[in-house]
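Cross-check.
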Amino acid sequence: MYRLINSILLLLFAYPVVAATSITSSTVSGHWQLSDSPILIFNDITVPHTQTLQIDAGVDIIFQGSYKLTISGTLFSVGTAAQPITYHRNDTTGWADTAITTGGWQGILFEPTSADLSIFRYSNVYDMKHGTLDDFRPINIANCNFFHNKNGCMRIDGADLNQLVDIGFCTFHDNPGKTLVSSRSCKYYIHEGAFYNNTAHCLYNDSASNNVLFQANDVYNNTQSDTIAGGLLKLQFSRGAVANNKIHSNTSLLNAVVACYASEVSLDANIICNNVTIVPERPGTNSKSIQGGAAIRIDDSGATVYRTSIITNNIIANNSTAYCGAAVYLYGANAGIFNNTIMNNSAAKGGCIYIFDSVSVGGTSVKVKNNILYHNVDTGGGAIDTLSIYVASADTLRYEYNFSSKAFSSDHIALTTFTLTGDTLSDVIYPSPLLINPTHTTSITENALSANFEPLINSPCVNTGDTTGTSTTINDYAGNLRVSGTVIDIGAIETPYKLSVGHHLPGTYFTVYPNPAQHVVHCLLPAASGTLAITDIMGKIMDQQAVNSATPQFNLDCLARGIYVIVWKNSLNNSTAAVKLVVE
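Predicted model, tokenized:
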């Protein structure tokens, strides 16, 4: 007997009983403290109008059935990074089966009000099913984690258009099913968040009155399998901007990962790379209306008003589609495509930019200027070719000041006649854009996110663009001033360190490797002549040598870590060329 009593006492001390608070009433308010946790919810509950529910950091809220929390009054759900508040279901048996209600809870509903002080921060929300966080008011949602939710995570609808729904620093991951964040009839800002390992639209905006800003988010490893309206980020009847995001390594069934329908959108300073659209053209269907694109799709077919979307300062690389338009797919859309770096994309047709006109107001007008368009591959028709423009049909195309490895006359396919404007003689034609460390193949497994697409100082893209008629921004993709010096560069990144070396003469380009370098840097010159020097960025000579071979090298052990310039003065034609060097 004594032995049994001692065993029971040991168990009690080893596993102390946690006090729980059971909620069985239909209305709640007041203060849920950590000492009250866990909070067990046994029915639908409401915070009434004019009343407040405050929840402390670390509180665990466990729904005992398919119940909902409705906020008619005010909610303060404010956890901390170390002690987040959690909302979840006690028993998730049956959660994956949408035909039944068991296994999940129905989410949180913020009912409409124009004046609200509610705050929802540092909260983990999971196991929702047949419901989401429904927001009908302007509130701040920050530092929250949404995962294992079946039919979406958040629905924003009907908030005051003069106030802002701010969703910042939130994570959405491992959610199957429907759209993670859907919205209409409101103004909202989603920023500095992460969307990964989801099988759904990450964002679906559907409202003519919206003001949308999707900025500085990381969107990766998501799969979207919608057979009607694709796009991981889908903007429909929208106005707004998608800026400074990393959108990479996603898979879509039919459409590009960023898809804009009947919208006027700015796509600025994003890297969109290593995404794939897997379904080839489907015979017997109007494929162009429901398919197309791997990175960006702009679709304004059947428009009744004139709209123009702007694509600028983006790096679009190593995307692939089994259909058309791997980098940019335009369907009945007006677009300005300025200062992008578009390279190593592949498609059955139109690995780079694919243009298809349809009935639209005044016909379509596409402007393509100041872009690096390099090694984008068409794989269809039994032959592999590199093409920058594929025109299935179009009204007007303005094309000028773009970099390519071949002249426009052999760098495009046109299935119908169209009006070409712009001065194609202004294009920069050279075998390579001479970037620091870009991707080298069209493989979607070659990681473009870790590449460096900045032009070398001696790149033919430096100081060879033109700002006339473009939507020039203040900053480039990397945050540098968009015009460094007197002339804009071609491509997404403006070279911040430029030398006044005049116009490059033929045969003055050279290569250095490795770059960045640690102990030794090698140079590869087209001629063994002149002098070679390493300077700091102020022009002070740190080391120099006469060029006696085409493969000279410098020892870097005497140099501090930083940015330097290797300057070659070619005595054969009295020219000067320079390459930026990073010493680690």
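Residues 7-17, 499-508 have pLDDT under 50 and may be disordered. The chain has two helices and 61 strands. Passed to J.P. for a second look.
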